[in-house]
Amino acid sequence: MTNIAKHGMELLLDPSSNKSTAFTEAEKQAFGLVGLVPDVTETEELQMQRVMMQLAQKNTDLERYIYLINLLDHNETLFYRTIMSDPARFLPIVYDPTIGEACLKFGHIFRQTRGMYLSIERRGKVKAVLKNWPQKDVRFICVTDGGRILGLGDLGANGAAIPIGKLQLYTACAGVPPNCTVTLLPRRTLEPAAGDCREARRVPTRTGFSPRRRHASDTSRMVFPVKSGTGMSPPSSTATVTCGKVGSGFLAGGDFNSVSEESVCALKSTGAKSSTESLSAPVPG
Known about the structure:
Layout: H1 8-12, H2 25-30, H3 44-56, H4 61-74, H5 76-85, H6 87-94, H7 98-104, H8 106-109, E1 116-119, H9 126-130, E2 140-143, H10 161-174, E3 181-187, H11 198-202, E4 239-240, E5 245-246, E6 250-253, H12 261-268, E7 273-276
Parallel strand pairs: 1-3, 2-3, 2-6, 6-7
Antiparallel strand pairs: 4-5
Helix pairs in contact: 4-5, 4-7, 5-6, 5-10
């Protein structure tokens, strides 16, 4: 029997433990699920057949992306089993190239929040904000400011789909437990900088906000300390997000609008495993 602490509807609403129609009769009795799910007990193979039939009714890869992310929001096990049943087919749907269109339309297709959003307005309060993340044993952090998304320009908070997708690949391809991951989207400006994507900004449902632009000197460094017992890091470590330092675990950064040379050096000097994709000079302008 599955070892699950949650009970009843709380269990069904938790995508990490929800099995939907695959709960056995014994599990239904033990976890208070009798009457909350159909009496039938389905295999994962049958559940996957239903997923494939529903995907076949979608006309575009973006529609398939939306469907799969909705599946992830309800049943993580079934989502990852579907993805890895045919990686050549599904990885281009949940990541590049479909992820580019998903970022452009992120505000429109937004359904369930994932990861953490840290604007410059939270400067000085980041430690308290990070405490809101429910998982404390975080081993993999993927960071971007959404500034250089697949050549589309600065998408702001709409760029969150990129680190979310990357961590899904870590789980699907490398077996990283999803509860040990988190995405961070720190924003140095409240309004997209030079090279921004005007198409994304015109959408009224975009997830970012643009009250005013901050001066560069005010946002040149955003240092987010994370210590043991205060948030998302192993003991005796600190994470400097966008300045790129992590004591242990893995910090992946990519698609930044600008990252200072000092920041990149700080990341490399820690001895932590790291990925620094697209950590390049600031966009001109």
